[in-house]
Amino acid sequence: MCGIVGISGQFEIETLRKMNSLLIHRGPDGSGEFIDRDRDFGFGMRRLSIIDLQKGTQPMANEDESLWVVCNGEIYNSPELRQEMMAKGHLFRTDNSDVEVLLHLYEERKEDLLHDLNGMFAFVIYDRSRNRLFGARDRIGIKPFYYSFKDEKFAFASELKSLLNLPWVSKELNFQSLYHYVSLQFTPAPDSIFRDIKKLPAAHSFTYDLSAKQLRVERYWNLDVARVEQRSSEEWASMVREKMKEAVKRWTLSDVPIACSLSGGLDSSAVVGLLAESGVKDLRTYSLGFGKPDEQGCNELPLARKVAQKWKTDHHEVILEPKRVLNDLEKMVWHLDEPYGGGLPSWYIYEMIGKDVKVCLTGTGGDELFGNYGKYRVYEDKLLRCRKMMRDLWAHRSLEEFKEGFRLPIGHYYHKYFSDAVKDEFVFDHRADSIVKTEPFLERLWKKSSSTSPRNAVAYVDFQLQLPEEFLLVTDRFSMAHSVEARVPFLDHTLVEFVFGIPPFLRTGGRDPKSFFKEIIKELLPQELYHAPKSGFILPLHIWTRRELQPMIEALLSPSYLKMQGIFSPKVYEKIVKPHLLKKIDFTQQIWTIFMFQMWYQKFQL
Fold this sequence. Notes:
By secondary structure, the protein is α+β, with helices and mostly antiparallel strands. It folds into 3 domains: 2-219, Glutamine Phosphoribosylpyrophosphate, subunit 1, domain 1 (4-Layer Sandwich), CATH 3.60.20; 244-366 and 463-489 and 513-530, Rossmann fold (3-Layer(aba) Sandwich); 540-606, no CATH class. 42% of the residues lie in helices and 16% in strands. The strands form 3 sheets. Strands 2-3-1-9-8-10 form a 6-stranded antiparallel β-sheet. Helix 9 (322-336) packs across helix 26 and helix 12 packs antiparallel against helix 13. It is globular, with a radius of gyration of 24 Å.
């Protein structure tokens, strides 16, 4: 695990080194660089030593140094791939480095090597003989990759902040990204919050011709949610359980100890159980909770303790106080790189883990595989109503009424933040009339799923959008902020592909979205957790925004500040902030979304 940076075009060595030094939190164990002055190219890395502790330094070259590579992440099937390459006569300098495997695979298969990789990764290979760069981001988007291509210069980095050090990269806001952010609470790829910086989307690769100064980006994998196989529920349950065990075992590849974050929910509890069953000794678990009486609705510590007791883990806890969050908020914003309006508690889990170990497994992805938080219900209800309208059409419905009724409100789930209509009316004061609206953007993603089931279509949208650009972004940034490698075995692509072969009405339940998953992992859970209602891993913001956070909110969202800043309409205060603070209505999510942008703006723009 590490951070990677690179520049093609005339540059100062100190610029590359400054970019790399900004990523020291991603790799405090060492650094390296390779510079080819004849080609005006150089790249570097910061290393967090997890595999092949002595010999796995980067950048790494093949035998004749015609290929060089930097990689952030882990290739979990590298032992099998190494054996395959050795059988073909390839010689390895390291004992078990997964990164060296990339070089020999590229020698054999060039760009097609991507189809053989299982893991989480963002890597770049410098091919000197073809004078080009080839790189890719893993299928699910677990590891990040930012780049800038401007004025015949190309640069990349694991984090956006490194690219901001380049003199040719401006800090001009991308208003399209901001418009989407206000509805989604994150910025969707391929754009970033800055006009000059892009994100390589999940499951995409790129080729950059160093001579012609040409960049090509293309998709190499797509989640198929339209394919369904027929098996009995018992067969599916048995096979999914086995696939989960295989994935968890595969993702424990490490030369250092492993821990597990434990929220007290189904997903992380299942990972703990599977780890314990696989034979991991002296397993450490880490949980977070809240101490005040009015915060107990967000507190899952009692359930986490039950799981720890069941598996006899070395259990650790932290009780979070609002003052501590306020003190750390600026640091979180800096590490996040882009505006983010979602949950923050995992910061403290990784902070605690980072004092003890370098690697932890999490349950991220379990909801997207099996439950999707029940988001599909509104769309299924819409379809049922439309089918009734079709039956009644001849009696009392016009064709136009039917067409309007049939339109699926894909943006519905995100209206709890801001709808396009509200943004246009008073958040941006009709200054966004010419850009792509968020709801049509979501509609297009929905249609790309090619699925007739809302349960699978919603999952497809989440895998393209919220999972890589929100949940995995936070997992990566907050874990790496504390020099911890967070692993997400439920997002092993072989498990993901298998699960989406399950008929949607079996994979995802009706009244209980994760009923099928709960039956699969039932024996891994204490009884109390099996029957517990779903609870998000969140901060009690509905309380804090009217208490500890109120002074900062009133300062950064006041009419005078908004008018001076010139981004949001001053109407935001009267329409949203004031009614919320007076407890006339709950606008927690809307306020938090804009407030977190303001925090980001203060850190990255002022």
